[in-house]
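To fix ideas, we quote verbatim a fold written out as tokens:
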Amino acid sequence: MALTPKQEAFCLAYMESGNASEAYRRAYTVGAMKAATINRNAKALLDNSKIATRLAELNQAAVSAAVMTRSEALERLSSFARADLSDLVEFGEYELSQDADGIPVMQAAWKIRDSVLQDPAKMAAISELTAGRDGIKIKTHSPLAAIQQLAKMQGWDAAQKHDHLSSDGSMTPTFLSLYGVSPDGKP
């Protein structure tokens, strides 16, 4: 049996506020209802099995939406790996004024490109913006680190061979060091 519109509104308000009494106030007309009555009615709704099931569904959906998928992680890492500082900022020299001899006073400057401000994926490639004594500094996520993480996640690393044999092809030195005797019982 489906929930009534007010029960559904209660569930949504409860997920948003985390407070059953507040959710009841949002979903139902309470007028001059006493706080104790609101609390009792809210508790009764929480105890309703249909509402408990719906809250569990909403909670699961919220958790699923909050957890980054492998695909999302790969997309974000790929975006970091492809990001180039020149795609994010525009460099230039601008004339500020002229000195006493009429020679232009130039200032090197940069600005974040308008296209970056419109694209959250490009904006995420910027890890730090700081303003200090030396001016404004911009730092991006490391493309090399992103590529290395992608390689790990995708299994691109070449298999490595580990040689556990001694120079004569046996495992005798390891066996001797562990047990103090060779496999044939000789010290």
